[in-house]
Design goal:
- By secondary structure, the chain is an all-alpha fold.
- It is 55% helix and 0% strand.
Length: 71
């Protein structure tokens, strides 16, 4: 599929099946506070893929609160 080939140029793991090892590593890294952007780079997937997997696995991840900009 040409579309998948194009996406995989930037995100090598895109559209690949998640393994049990991937899920364990995602959970561990996520709970350790690794950012979504860093997770995307580590797994070679898009931010959306990481966010979707976190939601599917119902993971409770520790994330640094986003800074609040003054009004």
């Amino acid at each position: 599929n040409p579309y998948i080939k194009k996406v995989r140029q930037k995100h090598p793991g895109a559209y690949a099946s998640w393994t049990e090892d991937d899920d364990r590593k995602l959970e561990q890294d996520c709970r350790s506070g690794v950012s979504i952007a860093e997770l995307a780079n580590l797994f070679g997937r898009t931010r959306g893929a990481i966010e979707s997997r976190i939601k599917k696995l119902n993971l409770k991840c520790w994330q640094e609160p986003a800074p609040v900009e003054p009004e």
